[in-house]
Automatic annotation (TrEMBL):
Transmembrane segments: none annotated. Pfam families: SprT-like (PF10263). Residues 4-151 form the SprT-like domain. NCBIfam families: PRK04351.1 (NF003339). SMART domains: SprT. GO terms for biological process: response to stress. It comes from the Bacteria. This is SprT-like domain-containing protein. It comes from Paenibacillus darwinianus.
Length: 159
């Protein structure tokens, strides 16, 4: 998706969810890494992190856009546009925006966790790698429905 498509997307969300037009600029900013989006009070422009879209997809990015549009519209209406303001909280809840500008959790920037466990089917021998410890009694083999046994891997598969 390029900036022109993002602009149209933000304009569409603004009209559909806020009943108000977005009359400024929305652009992707590749330097935004820990932050999903940003609203600029001086220019009234919005920036969205392309990593947000790449990592979390369109649905989560739409929530970030709604969050930034809450800042945008409330600011232009001279109402409470800051995170702690009641107007902001109410509008955000109404449109279903993300609660945080910073929606990219720290862990998304780190390497994915390696597999430390393996569930192995006692019946067919099917193997399932897991990052977290799981109780094998609570799951069944996805291929044959057989009972599973948990192994702790002493070597690590990188995912
Ligand atoms: Zn915010
Ligand atoms: Zn099986």
């Amino acid at each position: 998706m390029n900036n022109a498509a993002l602009q149209l997307w933000v304009e569409k969300i603004s009209l559909e969810c806020f009943d108000l037009p977005f009359r400024h600029r929305a652009t992707f900013n590749r330097r935004l890494k820990a932050t999903g989006g940003r609203y600029f009070m001086k220019s009234h422009d919005i920036e969205i992190s392309p990593y947000q879209l790449e990592t979390y997809g369109a649905e989560e990015t739409e929530k970030i856009i709604k969050h930034e549009l809450c800042h945008y519209h409330l600011h232009l209406m001279r109402r409470g546009y800051r995170h702690r303001d009641a107007d902001f909280k109410a509008l955000l809840a109404k449109v279903g925006g993300s609660r945080f500008c910073k929606s990219l959790p720290e862990r998304a920037q780190r390497k994915p966790a390696p597999f430390k466990f393996m569930l192995k089917c006692r019946a067919c021998g099917g193997e399932y790698l897991r990052k977290r410890k799981m109780n094998p009694a609570r799951y069944a083999c996805g291929k044959c429905g057989g009972k599973l046994q948990l192994f702790v891997l002493d070597f690590k598969f990188e995912s």
